[in-house]
């Protein structure tokens, strides 16, 4: 909307430029901008829980200071001899239980949605190594009956171009189409790794000898950055993840190029 006003009224220069934050920013406190329905659900659940947390924190703080105030001899020279109260004990037991039930409904709904894989159109295998990632597109086979497979290494600082992110850019990105159900199978070849991309709401452990799976449905084009989220050795902080979401036409062209390589 802001860009539309800029095009219609170019003399308006005070409107801010809008861009998605698909990687970490300086002094960032909140989430990165979501690109999948799962990440949108995670952010919405967080905001809903923050409402309950703020209300409970304010109420408990008020009760604490109120108690300290009345505990003073000057303010309450004749203290109450009450030791039990059936009503208040029922209230402070039932009320938290009721709040937990309210929280459980959206929480379990989101949990089951994160675990569901809906008829994937593309399956990609992600293999963690010390310290890089290997991607295998097993749905496509070239004339030599070989899958599309490539390694993804972090770019050294001296090879970075203007605009690329230090410690986050790779030489080969994982390219996927937007608005497509994608299954990602995650495993490891040596030690424990974790394939995590915050903007996509994905964090899947890579365990040697075991296949874990997660799903993606990216709603907008962009480049999304992540990192290994498992302490996997001395170079744990140097095996980033870059997922590039492109239109279906561009994805088909990229697959065709990979098959002819």
Order of helices and strands: HHHEEEEEEEEEEH
**CATH topology of the largest domain, anyone?**
Immunoglobulin-like
Radius of gyration: 26 Å
Molecular shape: elongated
Number of domains: 2
- Stretches where pLDDT is under 50 for at least 5 consecutive residues are 1-13
Give the percentage of residues in beta strands: 15-25%
Termini gap: 42 Å
The beta-strand count equals 10
Q: Biggest sheet, strands in spatial order?
A: 3-2-1-5-8
* CATH class descriptor name of the largest domain: Mainly Beta
Count of runs of 4 or more consecutive helical residues: 4
CATH H-level superfamily of the largest domain: Cupredoxins -  blue copper proteins
Structural class: alpha+beta
Q: Helicity level, as a percent range?
A: 25-40%
- What is the arithmetic mean of pLDDT? 87
The CATH architecture of the largest domain can be given as: Sandwich
Main beta-sheet annotation: 5 strands, mixed
Catalytic activity: 4 Fe(II)-[cytochrome c] + O2 + 8 H(+)(in) = 4 Fe(III)-[cytochrome c] + 2 H2O + 4 H(+)(out)
Protein name: Cytochrome c oxidase subunit 2
Membrane topology: Multi-pass membrane protein
Keywords: Copper, Electron transport, Membrane, Metal-binding, Mitochondrion, Mitochondrion inner membrane, Respiratory chain, Translocase, Transmembrane, Transmembrane helix, Transport
How would you summarize the topology of this molecule?
Blueprint: H1 2-8, H2 37-71, H3 86-115, E1 122-129, E2 132-141, E3 147-152, E4 174-177, E5 182-188, E6 193-197, E7 202-206, E8 212-216, E9 222-228, E10 240-246, H4 248-260
Parallel strand pairs: 1-5, 4-10
Antiparallel strand pairs: 1-2, 2-3, 5-8, 6-7, 6-9, 9-10
Pfam family, one: COX2_TM
Catalytic activity: 4 Fe(II)-[cytochrome c] + O2 + 8 H(+)(in) = 4 Fe(III)-[cytochrome c] + 2 H2O + 4 H(+)(out)
Organism: Corallina officinalis
């Amino acid at each position: 909307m802001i860009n539309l006003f800029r095009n219609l009224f170019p003399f308006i220069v005070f409107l801010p430029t809008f861009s998605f934050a698909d990687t970490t920013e300086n002094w960032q406190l909140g989430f990165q901008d979501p690109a999948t329905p799962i990440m949108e659900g995670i952010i919405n659940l967080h905001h809903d829980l923050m409402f309950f947390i703020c209300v409970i924190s304010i109420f408990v703080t008020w009760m604490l200071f109120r108690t300290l105030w009345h505990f003073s001899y000057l303010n309450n020279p004749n203290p109450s001899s009450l030791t039990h109260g059936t009503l208040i004990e029922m209230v402070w037991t039932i009320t938290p239980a009721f709040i937990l039930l309210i929280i459980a409904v959206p929480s379990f709904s989101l949990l089951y949605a994160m675990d569901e894989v809906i008829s994937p159109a593309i399956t990609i295998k992600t293999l963690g190594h010390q310290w890089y990632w290997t991607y295998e597109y097993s749905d496509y086979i070239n004339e030599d009956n070989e899958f599309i497979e490539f390694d993804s290494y972090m770019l050294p600082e001296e090879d970075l171009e203007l605009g690329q992110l230090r410690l986050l850019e790779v030489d080969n990105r994982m390219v996927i189409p937007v608005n497509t159900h994608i299954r990602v199978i995650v495993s490891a070849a040596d030690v424990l790794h974790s394939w995590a991309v915050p903007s996509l709401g994905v964090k899947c452990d890579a365990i040697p000898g075991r296949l874990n799976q997660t799903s993606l449905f990216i709603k907008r084009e962009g480049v999304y950055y992540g990192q290994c989220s498992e302490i996997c050795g001395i170079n744990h902080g140097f095996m980033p993840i870059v997922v590039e979401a492109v239109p279906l036409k561009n994805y088909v062209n990229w697959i065709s190029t990979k098959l002819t390589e």
